[in-house]
Design a protein that fits this description.
This protein has helices spanning 18-22, 51-57, 66-79, 83-95, 145-156, 163-169, 237-256, and strands spanning 117-119, 127-128, 173-174, 185-186, 191-195, 198-204, 207-209, 212-218, 225-230, 232-234. The radius of gyration is 18 Å and the shape is globular. The chain is an alpha+beta fold. The longest helix has 20 residues, at 237-256. It folds into two domains: 2-87, no CATH class; 103-256, DD-peptidase/beta-lactamase superfamily (Beta-lactamase, 3-Layer(aba) Sandwich), CATH 3.40.710. Strand 1 (117-119) and strand 2 (127-128) form a beta hairpin.
């Protein structure tokens, strides 16, 4: 949805362009910062950064939820409406996502739901983190795997965006260290990766919150989509990696069955 509002740079004080915030997993890391030839190569600054800055940014992809918080602020400044209202009017209601809503600062979770548990470092047992609040435009939405799959099918089939905007989302840069999977590339808010048994690979985006880990995948034409939610969050490196790999295998097997 935010991509529909990025046809031209927002006049941000420091010259950072909107696509910089949507690209990179959750961070403003980008391919050649000086290139101005296409939306996939829009510059970090309106005049282009210094040689030192270009070397420092390089072509890495890193993570920072701050980017999506800023996007929410940009949307509100450009439209005069809260970002949550825009999501409801342009995405949730048109797609009939009956089990998706924006809780704001409320810790309320609709019932029935699973208990969300988090294994904090050094703990000998998981902590119930079902009732937790936090997050704005960077992920302040509660939904279900079914609604998420519906959204992904609609996005990839062209129901939400015009062709040029969807094409801009699909312009990608390498993201080799983002998740434990080979060949991952990141676009504007969505990523692509090759999958055995699928000629065209899958588009996807996972996420985490206290006690919840989600993963998803959708075919490039939007004909099939899979979403999964795991209600235990591991915080140790080995546990996180094993959990991520299991979720990716689940999505891959479902999409290629």
């Amino acid at each position: 949805m935010p991509a529909a509002l990025t046809r031209r740079p927002f006049p941000w004080r420091y010259g950072i362009l909107v696509p910089n915030h949507i690209c990179a997993t959750r961070g403003t890391r980008w391919r050649n910062p000086r290139s101005r030839q296409s939306p996939a190569n829009w510059p970090f600054g309106t005049q282009g950064p210094s040689t030192h800055a270009a070397s420092r940014w390089g072509n890495r992809v890193s993570g920072s939820n701050t980017n999506y918080v800023v996007l929410g602020m940009l949307l509100e400044a450009a439209t005069g409406h809260p970002w949550a209202r825009l999501v409801h009017e342009r995405v949730i209601e048109p797609l009939g996502l009956r089990h998706t809503f924006t809780p704001g600062t409320s810790p309320y979770v609709p019932q029935p739901t699973a208990t969300a548990c988090t294994w904090f470092p050094g703990a000998d047992r998981p902590t119930d983190t079902t009732l937790a609040t936090g997050g704005g435009a960077d992920g302040g939405i509660i939904s279900t795997p079914r609604d998420l799959a519906t959204f992904l099918r609609a996005l990839m089939s062209g129901r939400l965006l015009r062709p040029a905007q969807l094409a801009a989302m699909k312009r990608t840069v390498p993201a080799p260290d983002w998740i434990p999977a080979p060949g991952v590339r990141y676009g504007l808010g969505i990523a692509w990766r090759p999958v055995a048994g699928s000629r065209d690979g899958v588009w996807f985006h996972g996420g985490t919150h206290l006690g919840v880990v989600s993963e998803s995948g959708v075919t490039p034409d939007g004909s099939r989509a899979v979403a999964a939610a795991v209600f235990t969050l591991r915080t140790d490196e080995e546990g996180r990696k094993a959990q991520a790999l299991a979720a990716l295998r689940l999505v891959d097997n479902a999409l290629t069955a």
